[in-house]
Amino acid sequence: MSSPQGRPRDVIPPQLLKGQKALVTGANSGIGRATAVALGKAGADVVVNYVTGAEEAEAVAEEIRSHGVRAAAYEADVSDEGQVVTMTNRMIEEFGTVDILVANAGLQRDAPLTEMTLAQWREVIDVNLTGQFLCAREVTKEFLRRGVVPEVSRAAGKIICMSSVHQIIPWAGHVNYAASKGGVQMMMGTLAQELAPKKIRVNAIAPGAIRTPINRDAWNTPEARAELQRLIPYERIGEPEDIAYAAVGLASDLFDYVVGATLFVDGGMTLFPGFATGG
Ligand code: BGC
Fold first, then answer.
1. pTM (global) more than 0.90
2. Residue 10 lies in a domain
């Protein structure tokens, strides 16, 4: 599945997010990296959060700056309350405010149930779910303080939660991960309902199989790719840009009336492809 359609063409409107400040967590690699770069291309200033991989994160910030906007790499563990508070305050101090949060940082610690340790369970819930809660809470304080600035955006703030197709597809051997993403779904909807009257838009993206380090085993051999392709009606693996472009759209005023939605960006993985020939 070496993507016969090739990599996505770059079609980002350069002024779409002009003047906005975006925080992307877990932005040193994979989906977070592509999203941070795309937001920069759309005119936003970007904070590239990372917890490991300082050099990669600096390189991402450098690449974003080459598009004529500001960018900086901030280290913080999103599952640590103190570090999230410090990171958000630093961003407000150095960038003036925050308009967009892409709560992307996430990880997998896979094991069959009887072999999964409590530490593996907790690490995944702490990073994937609690991390999003902490970041959403801190940026919301700033959104509420600042309110709507009409020249910048119709909304007081935008939060995009990175979920997964596994917010609805059960996934044997990954109970911690699937549970964390199911939690993200309900957290996102609840926050969207709570914050909409304050003109804060909360939405989620649910990626399918995207070519990133998290799922290398699923795509780096021909056998694995063939197996994976059976699950994807559109018959190609996703590229990080597929998610990044969705995030740019959701963060922009083009999507101002989209509140509490989960956008599945998965090549049809959630269409029950097994039923194409059965049932
Ligand atoms: C997981 C990947 C997986 C994909 C589709 C993602 O959320 O992180 O490992 O390939 O879902 O199953």
1. yes
2. no
Q: Ligand 1: which of 165, 185, 211 to mutate, judged by most atoms within 8 Å of the beta carbon? A: 165
* Centroid of ligand 1 to alpha carbon of 71 (angstroms): 29
Instruction: Find the mean pLDDT for residues 213-228.
Output: 94
Q: Kindly state whether residue 237 falls inside one of the protein's structural domains.
A: yes
Nearest CA to ligand 1 atom 10: 209
Number of structural domains in the chain: 1
Radius of gyration of the chain (CA): 18
Within a domain: 212: yes
Tens of pLDDT, residues 239-270:
999 999 999 999 999 999 999 999 999 999 99
- Where in the sequence is the domain holding 229, given as residue range(s)? 21-266
Whether 1 has a pLDDT exceeding 80, the answer reads: no
Nearest-angstrom CA–CA distance, 70 and 101: 16
Catalytic residue among 50, 177, 234, 257: 177
- From the list 162, 171, 270, the residue with the least C-alpha distance to 179 is 171
Catalytic residue flag (residue 177): yes
- The closest of 182, 177, 163, 190 to 250, measured between CA atoms, is 163
Q: Any idea which of 4-8, 58-62, 75-79 has the lowest mean pLDDT?
A: 4-8
Model confidence at 39: pLDDT above 80: yes
Instruction: From residue 99, give the alpha-carbon distance in Å to each of 39, 114, 159, 210.
Output: 12, 43, 9, 26
Q: What is the pLDDT of residue 4?
A: 56
Say how many Å lie between the CA of residue 157 and the centre of ligand 1.
28
Report which protein residue has its CA nearest ligand 1's atom 2. Answer: 215
The reply to whether 15 falls in a domain is no
